[in-house]
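Dear U.,

Please find below the material for section 3 of the report. The protein was modelled together with S-adenosylmethionine; I have listed the sequence and SMILES used, followed by the predicted complex structure.
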Amino acid sequence: MNIWLMGGLWVVFFLLVSTALFFFAATRGALVLRGLTADAACDKSHVYPIYSNMRLIKLVDFQPVISAILLFQYHHLVARIVRELRSVDLKNRNLLITSCAFGNVIPRVVQAAVQAGAGRVLVTDIIDNELVHARSKVGDLSAKVEFIEDNATAMRQPDGVAAANVMFFLLHELPHRLKRQALSEAGRMLAPGGKLLLAEFHRPDVRVLRAMSWLYFKVFEPLGLALWNTHDPLDCLESMGGWTCQRTTYFFGNFQIIVATRQ
Ligand SMILES: C[S@@+](CC[C@H](N)C(=O)[O-])C[C@H]1O[C@@H](n2cnc3c(N)ncnc32)[C@H](O)[C@@H]1O
């Protein structure tokens, strides 16, 4: 084989392995280490350093990287959420965003809400650095936004505070016992007729993709696999009662958006 081609293949291999090791260290690896220390008991113990350390947040939060992690479906998922938001009457009412996320989802959702005449946009997260980072993305729109440190599983917001609530890829990172609690809190904070817009991973329909996805979750995000069965968010919402739900899947079933309307 040509020596240049051989060299190139080694460089690609090295880059892939280093990236995987970096992500493992900044996600599951750190949680395994944390589990061995006293920190393991606090309500932030499930949060990866990639979301709490400002240097790591800034290092990782690049749109192409984030889009690639979501198999280039990020744009479609955000576009759907924005479209759904436009169908909610937000005039002088509040939009809640339950937990920050990388990429442009926060500015796009905030912009859609402000354009729809929302009274306030409440951006919440359990990690202050995530809120500081989110604030840096919304620019002039921040006049309409409140950034609030709060725990999605035990929120300090009053009942019925929001006309819509966006939860973007939070559930798969929560310990199982907290997944249902986060959904229950989401419902409590919605006014009657309000909408929960939830984006998450879903069990892929295609066997190859399912195998790859299974491997990804086992290595990096083991809390996510339960969304395929025991903690399917649609099943959880329907079993709670008081919701009308509609699920759409994307990219051979690998992702889902649930639009759940509070009765
Ligand atoms: C919503 S997920 C987003 C993951 C996804 N990979 C992304 O960035 O597109 C990560 C966010 O959830 C936040 N988070 C984790 N647990 C939380 C909780 N119990 N309450 C509120 N926010 C939480 C983290 O601090 C982080 O900002």
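For the text of the report, you could mention the following: Residues 3-26 form the longest helix (24 residues).

Regards,
Y.
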